[in-house]
Design brief:
heterodimer, A: 115 residues, seven-stranded mixed beta sheet, four-stranded antiparallel beta sheet, 11 strands, 49% strand, globular, B: 115 residues, mainly beta, six-stranded mixed beta sheet, 50% strand
Chain lengths: 115, 115
């Protein structure tokens, strides 16, 4: 089965520009998560979708971040306008069931560098 | 709220030597516990997990971890390290059903293997 795919793998943008990250979860996985890791820090939760609905977005840093999951398939995370502190690796993960046996499958991450 | 501490940022071992990576968690009850590994250019891969039962759990690639309730620890071990084990290792904790189902990660430990 195909894994979780993220695109782009690396993006370098200027402060103030916009970037959109994309995540394609494993087919059939209703749960989709976004995490971010700033260099040297822990992997921090951003938000969680169940199908197309945002179940928990308590980790979103501010309103410059917008996540969507139209149709309950792939998801996008847009940063507009980007700031220096947004640099880091953005991970997407998916799972079939968020309950008892929930184990997340992660993508390789999208590295964002804001100059 | 749950939290995870990985006190070692970097660990250097010689190939063939034994390895122990430390993980301490904070949670009011016995959580679900995970170890993930990230090799360069790859996503986070699940090494092993603890849900209940035997406190010594076996994982992939020859890794094992021991849950110690009295110490709130879930340390990862391997008796003989291979050069291909050089990677970043993340410990994660998740509440049991009824609590937050969002895994919380530590900041990771980078493993360097000398020939």
């Amino acid at each position: 089965e195909a894994g979780v795919t993220q695109f782009p793998s690396h993006s370098v943008i200027e402060k103030g520009q916009t970037v959109t990250l994309r995540c394609d979860p494993i087919s059939g996985h209703d749960n989709l998560y976004w995490y971010r890791r700033v260099m040297g820090k822990e992997i921090k939760f951003l938000l969680h979708f169940v199908k197309e609905s945002k179940q928990d977005e308590s980790g979103m840093p501010n309103n410059r971040f917008l996540a969507e999951r139209t149709g309950g398939t792939y998801s996008t995370l847009k940063v507009q306008p980007a700031e220096l502190e947004d640099s880091g690796v953005y991970f997407c993960a998916s799972s079939y069931d968020r309950l008892e046996a929930n184990v997340l499958t992660f993508g390789a991450g999208s590295r964002l560098t804001v100059l | 709220a749950q939290s995870v501490t990985q006190p070692d940022i970097h660990i250097t071992v010689s190939e063939g030597a034994s390895l122990e990576l430390r993980c301490n968690y904070s949670y009011g009850a016995t959580p679900y516990l995970f170890w993930y590994v990230q090799s360069p250019g790859q996503g986070l891969q699940l090494l092993l997990k603890y849900f209940s039962g035997d406190t010594l759990v076996q994982g992939i690639k020859g890794f094992e971890a021991e849950f110690k309730r009295s110490q709130s620890s879930f340390n990862l071990r391997k008796p003989s390290v291979h050069w291909s084990d050089a990677a970043e290792y993340f410990c994660a904790v998740r509440a049991r059903p009824g609590g937050s189902y969002i895994p919380t990660f530590g900041r990771g430990t980078s493993l360097i293997v000398h020939p």
